[in-house]
Structures are given as C-alpha cells and as structure tokens.
C-alpha cells in the first residue's frame, strides 16, 4: 500500500464494503479492520448543491437512464456539449479561475469528483499540494471561494477538514499554472497526459494504461456501430471497445481515475445522413444538433450486477482540446467502466485509466 493511503479514515461506503467482505468470506474468517477504524467513524459524503460561483439551493440535473445498449428514451440522452449525471445528485459545483468546472457527484453513499478542463488549461492535480489521497471535502475546501459555506450534508460524517491553509488556497494557483503553461499549438499533449496520471501513484494491475492518439477509423479499440433511433435512418458511429467489452472495465478496485481528452472532432462522413460525422438528430422531442462524441463513466457497487451511469459528457465541436477526468477514492471493491460512443471515424482521443488496490 502506498504511503499516502496509510492511516486514512474510512468513508461510510468503505465501512459498508468491509462489512460485506466479512459477510462474503468463504472461510468464515473475520476481516481484520485497521486499528484506526472505529465503529462510529463513518464518512458519509451526501447531498447539497452549489451554484457555479457560490453555493445555492439544490437544482436537480437532468436524469439519464442510459444503459450500455443505448436503447434508452432519447429524451434522457445528453445534447450537444451537455453533461448529465444519471440518477445522481451533484452535491457541489465550483467554477475555477482556469475556466474549468469541478463537480462533486454522489454515487451510492460515496462521492466522485468530475473535472471538466478547457483547452490549454491545467488540471487541478497540477496544483502543488493537491494529492490523490485527499478526501472530496478537502478538494472542495481548496478550490471554493473564501467564505463559501461548506454544505452540511457534504460535511456529515466526513473526515475533519484540513484547515492548515485558508479556504480557496488552490484557486489562485490553478489560474497561475494555466497562464504559464497554456498550450499554443495542437490540441493534445501526450507527455503532459501521461505525467498527469503518474502524479496519482495509482499503478496496480499494470496501470496506468494509455491509449493515445486513437482515431476510431484505424484504432483497434473502436468498433463501427449502427445507431437506429427509430426515425427510419441509420447513423454510423464508433464505440470504444476493449477485449470485446463496451468500454474499458476495471473490476473490484478501491481507487479509480479515468481521463478522456478530445484531440480532434471529425466533420464529414459520407455514409451518414446529412453527410456529417456528427449529424443532427431530431426525433420524438429529442433534438441534438451535433451527436457526440460522448464519454461515459459507469460503476457497479460491490455484489451487484447492474451498471449505473455516473456521468455522461457530450463534446461539442467547439470543445476540441478539452478533457474530463473522474476520480474516485471513497469506496472499496467497486467496478468501474469508461465508454466513448457516438465517435466519428476521424475523431481523435487520448484515453487513460489507472487503479489502486488497498
């Protein structure tokens, strides 16, 4: 176990997962809980939402019931440039000084962090002092504006906030790192992409895994699919596929980070209606002027078989060069999956995943 994970308090989900481990033990031997894990120390990070610049009353994001077959009602799918969160609550949203956005999303009884970073900006992980082991509440404290009230439900049962630095101490640093390192040529920097992953220290099971400069038309990790929404037309897109599975799947892991960078978005595709790689679709009340590409992160709770969608991000043509990353460090033995679908033949992606077993 890396040093940065030693002596960490367990979250509510982790306590539940450890109990499940004990119950499912095949040799009836008890799971030995760490000495620092007390029955009453439960870290439950639960719901309340902020507005973009400061916290406000919760406003529910649109729900999505998308399953791996993409056979859901069209009205639940993301529209051009939109991010949706399945049936999950966004507990807090922070607009950053680098024009990026941080969202804290409740999954099960735990919390994951989604960062959407625009072209040329650095990730929050580039800020010195932002560590992989930090609980979501400390990340919130570091990047929220001074004086922003921490949501009570996000505080409930969580580890005590580290107040060794003032609230918002990382905001200016993320702005400075952006101005000093803004990309002037190209849309993806492979060296930066790989270096970013290495800062997490997640290197179990042969990770981090990098799939760089992946163009669906020629990549062995993308398969051509026909999409038929029911309007009498057939649309051809590509889906990210690994080892015969839709997406890249990591089973039974304790820490997970995934990142998708969009390096190019295709425009023309003669085999599609309208001759476009990302045509507009209007059917049964659903209207999207530019279908895809879409990145999706899904999870399965320990002992369950149903995949649930944590986030869906549709990339608009104007978002070439932008990236998303999803980081989860508040549960044990979860299954995670990253998909890309509705990709055009000549889109291009940098894709990476890394896991850690405790």
Describe the fold and architecture.
The chain has 358 residues and is of the alpha+beta class. It is built from five helices and 17 strands. The chain has helices spanning 12-23, 136-143, 152-155, 171-181, 190-198, and strands spanning 83-84, 90-95, 101-107, 110-117, 209-214, 222-227, 235-242, 245-246, 248-253, 255-264, 281-283, 286-288, 294-300, 308-314, 323-328, 334-341, 348-356. The protein has a seven-stranded antiparallel β-sheet, covered by helices on one side. The longest helix has 12 residues, at 12-23. It is globular, with a radius of gyration of 20 Å.
Q: State which percent range the strand residues make up.
A: 25-35%
Order of helices and strands: HEEEEHHHHEEEEEEEEEEEEE
User: How far apart lie the N and C ends?
Assistant: 6 Å
State mean pLDDT (0 to 100 scale): 77
In helices, the fraction of residues equals 10-25%
User: Outline, from the CA principal axes?
Assistant: globular
Instruction: Indicate the low-confidence ranges by residue numbers.
Output: 1-72, 179-185
Major β-sheet profile? 7 strands, antiparallel
Q: From the alpha carbons, calculate the radius of gyration and give it in angstroms.
A: 20 Å
Give me the side-by-side strand order of the main sheet: 2-3-4-15-10-17-5
Strand-pairing-aware structural class: alpha+beta
Number of helices: 5
Number of strands: 17
């Amino acid at each position: 176990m890396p040093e940065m994970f030693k002596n960490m308090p367990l979250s509510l989900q982790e306590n539940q997962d450890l109990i499940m481990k004990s119950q499912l033990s095949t040799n009836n031997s008890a799971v030995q809980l760490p000495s620092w894990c007390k029955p009453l120390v439960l870290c439950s990070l639960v719901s309340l939402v902020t507005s973009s610049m400061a916290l406000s009353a919760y406003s529910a994001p649109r729900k999505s019931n998308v399953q791996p077959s993409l056979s859901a009602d069209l009205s639940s799918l993301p529209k051009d440039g939109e991010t949706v969160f399945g049936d999950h609550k966004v507990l807090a949203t922070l607009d950053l000084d680098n024009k990026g956005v941080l969202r804290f999303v409740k999954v099960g009884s735990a919390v994951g962090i989604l960062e959407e970073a625009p072209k040329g900006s650095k990730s929050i992980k580039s800020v010195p002092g932002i560590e992989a082991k930090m609980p979501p509440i400390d990340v919130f404290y570091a990047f929220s504006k001074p004086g922003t009230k921490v949501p009570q439900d996000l505080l409930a049962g969580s580890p005590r906030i580290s107040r060794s630095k003032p609230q918002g101490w990382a905001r200016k640093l993320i702005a400075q790192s952006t101005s000093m390192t803004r990309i002037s040529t190209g849309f993806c920097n492979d060296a930066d992409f790989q270096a970013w992953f290495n800062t997490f220290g997640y290197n179990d099971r042969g990770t981090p895994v990098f799939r760089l400069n992946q163009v669906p038309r020629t990549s062995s990790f993308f398969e051509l699919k026909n999409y038929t929404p029911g309007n009498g037309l057939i649309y051809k897109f590509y889906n990210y596929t690994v080892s015969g599975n839709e997406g890249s799947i990591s089973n039974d892991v304790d820490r997970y980070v995934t990142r998708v960078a969009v390096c190019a978005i295709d425009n023309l595709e003669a085999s599609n209606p309208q001759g476009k790689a990302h045509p507009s679709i209007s059917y049964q009340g659903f209207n999207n002027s530019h279908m895809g590409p879409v990145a999706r992160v899904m999870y399965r709770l320990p002992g369950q078989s149903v995949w649930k969608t944590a986030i869906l991000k549709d990339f608009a043509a104007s978002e070439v060069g932008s990236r998303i990353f999803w980081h989860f460090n508040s549960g044990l033995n979860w299954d995670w999956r990253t998909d890309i679908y509705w990709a055009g033949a000549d889109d291009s992606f940098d894709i990476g995943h890394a896991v850690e077993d405790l």
